[in-house]
Amino acid sequence: MPEGHTIHRLAQDYAARFTGTAPRVTSPQGKFSDAADLLGGAVLTATEAHGKHLFLRFRDADWVHIHLGLFGKVGFGAAPAPPPADTVRLRLANDTAYADLRGPTTCALITDAGKRAVHDRLGPDPLREDADPGTAYRRISRSRTTIAALLMDQKVVAGVGNVYRAEVLFRHGIDPYRAGRDITPAEWDALWADLVELMREGVRNNRIDTVRPAHTPEAMGRPPRVDDHGGEVYVYRRASRPCHLCGDAVRTAGLAARNLFWCPTCQQR
Ligand SMILES: [Zn+2]
User: Family assignment (predicted)?
Assistant: First the structure.
């Protein structure tokens, strides 16, 4: 499942290619055809992301709401667009570029009210200017649920996925099994500020890097990480490998339906 930085990056990538143009909107697969017809000749006026939800605005208030889910993907290319595969749910194409969306969980045309309902279900997103981390802390500070599970709950914080939750808890030495209500305001402020910084860098680089300058492969004289997710990390998918800080084995366990990774030595707060 892509994390929030990927969706914000997609919002930027769609905007760079289509804002201010009236792309041809089609659904080669057919499932979005009726909505695509309604968008004929409409100008794409804005794009936006909130957590793992992507919104493309046409005209004043026609929104295409996209959630990639586990299998969704977007591919961009330069015009002229080749004949589409019949798995493409939504194609946008103008004189300079095209974008193909395949396999999303959601691709629907919604109104402003429908969009507001999506926002209302989501917690603050560290990548949005309007995010209020206090809203998240009110939920966290009342909860007996573990901080590792709360960070993955999109109603609490939107956009954080399995990689960022593991890495931000490591960076702050926090035991992932601590209850939310035991997280102090100062700890939450630090976690939030770090998420903002890490996720912004994720949007810029289109990948997740979480190691501090002292722990890069160059600084430590170690080989770079080899993983199809890319990026340098402390614990994510490093089960039973030595921790970059203390050398003890990184551990893994199931938590909130996903594998959690952490260092039991470094994360005792
Ligand atoms: Zn360690």
Answer: Belongs to the FPG family.
* Pair 14, 115 in one domain: yes
Domain residues for the domain of 208 are 133-262
For the question of residue 155 being annotated catalytic, the response is no
Q: How confident is the model at residue 2 (pLDDT cuts 50, 70, 90)?
A: confident
Higher per-residue pLDDT: 35 or 2: 35
**Residue 2: active-site member:** yes
Tell me how far the alpha carbon of residue 269 lies from the centroid of ligand 1, in angstroms: 13
Q: What is the DSSP secondary structure assignment for residue 44, as one 8-state letter?
A: E
Task: Assess whether 65 and 14 both reside in one domain.
Answer: yes
CB 176 within 8 A of CB 255: yes
In this structure, which residues have their CB less than 5 angstroms from ion ligand 1? 243, 245-246, 263, 265-266
Residues 6+ apart with CB under 8 A from 176: 146, 147, 148, 165, 166, 169, 255, 260, 262, 267
